[in-house]
Amino acid sequence: MSYFRNFPDVFYKFGNEANSDLVQDLALYIDVVDQLKDEVSVYIDYYIQDGERPDQLSYRLYNTPNHHWTFYMMNDKIRERGWPISNIELIKKAKNLYNLTTLTTRTRLYDKFKVGQVIQGLQSGATATIDHRHLDLGQLIIRDISSNFIVGEQVSSENEFGEIELITIQSLSEEYNSAHHYVDGNNQIVDIDPEVGPGALLNEITYLDRLISQNNELKQIRVIRPTAIDTVVESFREALRL
């Protein structure tokens, strides 16, 4: 990568080796770009397009792909959290991270239907195992589903004492499409009573919605103006040589 090309070499001892090796000092940090982050004359705001890569943006702005590293230096959020991914990749990520099924009930759960219990639909005959729970939302996250459950049916499970427990399914969805939390009209997170539900005045934010929002936050960045890029890059390289 061109970013590391001008980094100086240092002697470094790896592990318990007796001799030191000459390697690039990749830990070196130069704050030349950091000092320019808030200089209005040096930067412009930019919104990263869906699927746009750092090298593509560098070429679009500067006619070279080699200044992609300046985007990370100018923006702490993408330096810390990474470059935003495309919508297609985002959906794949959501399905991979949250790949189970969410069963929601209005029945109190804190003292029943515990992790590891096997459940069975009394109408559908479907079975599954409880993987984890979100008691504040009335959710059971289930795996190893044998067939489709039916919304509105009762589900039974035998607890550790041999007692049969019952709940009613309020809704079913893929985990990534289930509620992560609820917000009010001011977009503030609010708690709900899981035995009552969120009501009509609250908005559901799913796991996928949350990932989309986090990804979109990364798209609004500051970039160095094309008229200033050569001066900034040369100042950075000069600082490396000091």
Please characterize this protein's 3D structure.
- It is a single chain.
- The chain is an alpha+beta fold and 242 residues long.
- It has helices at 54-62, 69-74, 76-81, 87-97, 207-219, 229-241; strands spanning 9-12, 21-24, 43-47, 101-105, 118-121, 127-134, 139-143, 154-158, 164-174, 179-183, 189-190, 203-206, 220-224.
- It contains six helices and 13 strands.
- The strands form four sheets. Strands 4-7-6-5-8-9 form a six-stranded antiparallel β-barrel.
- The longest helix is centred in the last third of the chain and has 13 residues, at 207-219.
- The model is unreliable at 22-28 (pLDDT under 50).
- Calculate the mean pLDDT score and round it: 88
Spatial separation of the terminal alpha carbons: 21 Å
Name the poorly predicted regions. 22-28
Major sheet details = 6 strands, antiparallel, barrel
Task: Looking at this protein, list some descriptive labels.
242 residues; three-stranded antiparallel β-sheet; alpha+beta; 24% helix; six-stranded antiparallel barrel; single chain; elongated
Topology overview:
Elements: E1 9-12, E2 21-24, E3 43-47, H1 54-62, H2 69-74, H3 76-81, H4 87-97, E4 101-105, E5 118-121, E6 127-134, E7 139-143, E8 154-158, E9 164-174, E10 179-183, E11 189-190, E12 203-206, H5 207-219, E13 220-224, H6 229-241
Antiparallel strand pairs: 1-2, 3-13, 4-7, 4-9, 5-6, 5-8, 6-7, 8-9, 10-11, 10-12
Helix pairs in contact: 4-5
